[in-house]
Amino acid sequence: MAKTTLTVKVHIDGVREILRAFDVLPKDAQNAIREHSQALARKLAVKAQVDVSVHGGPQGPNLASTVKAVRDRVPAIQIGGTRRIGRHRAPAYGQLFGALFGMNSRSGWFSALKYKSAQGHQYREHRGQDAYAFFPVIEREAATISREWHAAVDDVVRKFSEGGV
Predict the structure, then answer these.
(1) Helix axes of 135-161 and 27-55: crossing angle, nearest 10 degrees
(2) Are 56 and 131 in contact, with CB atoms under 8 Å apart?
(3) From CA 35, how far away is CA 14, in angstroms rounded?
(4) What distance in Å separates the CA atoms of residue 110 and residue 107, rounded to the nearest whole number?
(5) Taking Cα atoms as reference points, which of 117, 121, 112 lies closest to residue 57?
(6) pLDDT tens, 128-157?
(7) 76 — phi, psi (to 5°)?
(8) 119 pLDDT band (50/70/90 cuts)?
(9) CA torsion 32→42→144→163, rounded to 10°?
(10) Are 123 and 102 in contact (CB under 8 A)?
(11) For the chain, give me the number of helices (H) and strands (E)?
């Protein structure tokens, strides 16, 4: 079965080396960093929901309800899924990329011959790799999230190297 959600992890410099070093720490340390990462991801998910709702075009408000934080060692958020949204009850994954990136053609019910002469557009104009929503927020917040994640990792390492917790 194909994936129906888009999961994006925040880019953090040096994350592979840090996660490799975490392998020697107890399982509780791994869980602690997951909790910190999920808290950071929740903050980012709220900002992404607002951005998708405002800048996601006509489908944005419906699509914003599918944004959520993912529990992982690195802050990650997810959008899309099989939930049926909108007036036509289309699955969220079917509207995802059209709402975020735009589209230069018609799809789904709007591609029928009877709509050939319609002047309206289902999605905004496709601009290449420049997204209208979701990705710009992640890129803008990446430095802040990275800084906070590194501080959380330092805190967890300090707690577990002292023999506490």
Answers:
(1) 160
(2) no
(3) 20
(4) 6
(5) 121
(6) 888 999 999 999 999 999 999 999 999 998
(7) -145, 145
(8) low
(9) -10
(10) yes
(11) 5, 5
